[in-house]
Amino acid sequence: MSVVHAVGRGMAWNTAATVTGKFVMLANIFLTLHYLTVYEYGFTELVMSVISMMGIVLLPGLTSTVVSDMSVERGREEHMRMSLIFHQHFFLNVILGLTAWAVLFFGSQPVAELAGNPYAAQFLKLASFIFLIGPLRQATQVLSTVYMRFFEQSFYVVFEELFKLACILVFIVWQGMGIKGLVLSIVLSQFLAVLSFMPRTLSAYARLPHVPLAEYFHAWKLLEPHRLWSIGTSHVGTIATNARLWIIKAMLGTEAVGLFAFAMGMLSHVSSIVLLSTVLTPVLPRYIDKRDQLVRIVKASVKVQLIVSAFLTAAAVAGSSLFVQTVFPKYMPALPIIYILLLSVIANGVATIFTTVFAAHKLQRSLLGSVLFKSLVMLVVLPPSILMFGIVGMGVEVVVTSFANAGERYRRVKKFLPELSLGPTSLFKTDAYERQAMQMVTRQARSRLKAVLRF
After folding, report:
1. Distance CA 304, CA 441 (A)
2. What SS3 class is residue 376?
3. Which three-class secondary structure state does DSSP give residue 268?
4. Number of domains comprising the chain
5. Could you tell me if residue 77 is left (phi over 0), alpha (psi between -120 and 50 degrees) or otherwise beta?
6. Do 319 and 405 fall into the same domain?
7. pLDDT in tens, 360-394
8. Residues 200, 202, 204, 207: what is their CA dihedral angle, to the nearest 10 degrees?
9. Are residues 72 and 205 in the same domain?
């Protein structure tokens, strides 16, 4: 298969999955928010945050580097080496998954009491089975990516959402099981997706050469320096995101967590419309050795991103009140938070462009430092913001953290791209080369948007 054909197929499947998944996900969100109270939704977010934090035991940041290294070995036709990396990664996941499940399943009561709500123990015990499903889930995703099996790669999450929708209809809408129904839906949807993709996963696995069982036990060799930085970045981001929820819970209560989660969900959907980061990810690595062109592309991308983000923010502010009042009236108290959060769309959009520069230069260590800085700002700013502004302070913290993060990432990018200048003067002034770069970025973003709309 030629590279052009492979990329074309991948984009076609990815676009179809993105659009389909968006509709199914919106249906899941609508049903969940409609049938659960704000308190129940906030409570579920806290339960799943415990699962998320326990999930760092599975070293989620390791997967991306494992996929990258397997792909390199496949390109070199070192199939035995590729197989060895896969089997060691799978064996490590099984051991860690069993450990995480056992700790949470048998220790759910102490964990729930430590979290200040013994009632949560039953839900933690149920959710713990996600850790037993995890190794098979990751095996499917790793093999589908390495072997460029675009259907599995693109539609796996869509199938999970479809199964989740079916479970929500049964357990929440029909049976009225509330929080338990939602947790059960999350667990069962992952299990059913693994089960439905198992034949295709086994067919991909059959292509791997046999590896002696003794080699599995050398899984610790996977923890090489470049992978450790990636793992650290994932861990810090996960802990900080979930710590934010527990700080809100401690200061404002569980219902405030539900309002904040809803507002962040709205922000996420608005931000996902901005396509430049996905466009730049495959483009920037081509210009690593052409610094002048790289700088122009990055600068042009920031300018386009600022324009698009400003337009999206204005549109979202104008339409938020009517949308929330019509579709989710019980979440009207979250509207002031949404208005403030939308200001972070601009900063987040620019920060994602800088993140693609980190990835293109393989600067995982520097990215970890940036994530640590962002987490520290959140921890320092959130409590006083809540004390000064109350429930609206949750949004104030996100905006402050987002702009601080964008500025700090710009500072780091400047260290290895000193030619890059984004001062007020340069932002409103363009030359012929920059206009050409802006046209290239805009053209690619437009083509990607048209592909989505065609589906």
Report:
1. 8
2. helix
3. helix
4. 2
5. left
6. yes
7. 666 677 778 888 999 999 999 999 999 999 999 99
8. -150
9. yes
